Amino acid sequence: MNENKSEFEPKIVAFVCNWCTYAGADLTGTSRLKYATNVEIVRFPCTGRIDFMLLLKAFAGGADGIIVSGCHPNDCHYTSGNFHARRRWIVFRGLLDFLGIDIRRICYSWVSAAEGAKWAELVNQTVANIRELGPYEEYKKATEYLEQEVAHE
């Protein structure tokens, strides 16, 4: 095991829907529940609006892990946006596998506006899981390789 893993604090980016998960995260704060501060939240109107290529951009920007979270099935503010997101997630997993990205670095979950404690638990568990996996450096390796190839042309 890498000695630096115990000191490693992962950077997590959370893509969340405004109506459920963001409100749940807000409830976590107003309820004064303690949870890891490693998460940067990016709020969307609906998880159905998340372009999953943004997840790759998050990794490119230095994220070690990602959370995608929205309304529970049949509770979507926009009727079926969370179902669209779930279908795209299933397809996106194949792309991640093809790219060699460990899907354990991405957590897909449902959190309602009333589930502040669940949000805290989700964040804490995701941070612990990513801490165990260590820093995500594969994107850096791919970038360095491409830069070397361009330099040789």
UniProtKB/TrEMBL annotation:
InterPro entries: MvhD/FlpD. Pfam families: FlpD (PF02662). Keywords: Iron, Iron-sulfur, Metal-binding, Oxidoreductase. The keyword Transport does not apply. The keyword Signal does not apply. GO terms for molecular function: iron-sulfur cluster binding; metal ion binding; oxidoreductase activity. It comes from the Bacteria. Residues 12-134 form the F420-non-reducing hydrogenase iron-sulfur subunit D domain. This is F420-non-reducing hydrogenase iron-sulfur subunit D domain-containing protein. It comes from Bacteroides oleiciplenus YIT 12058.
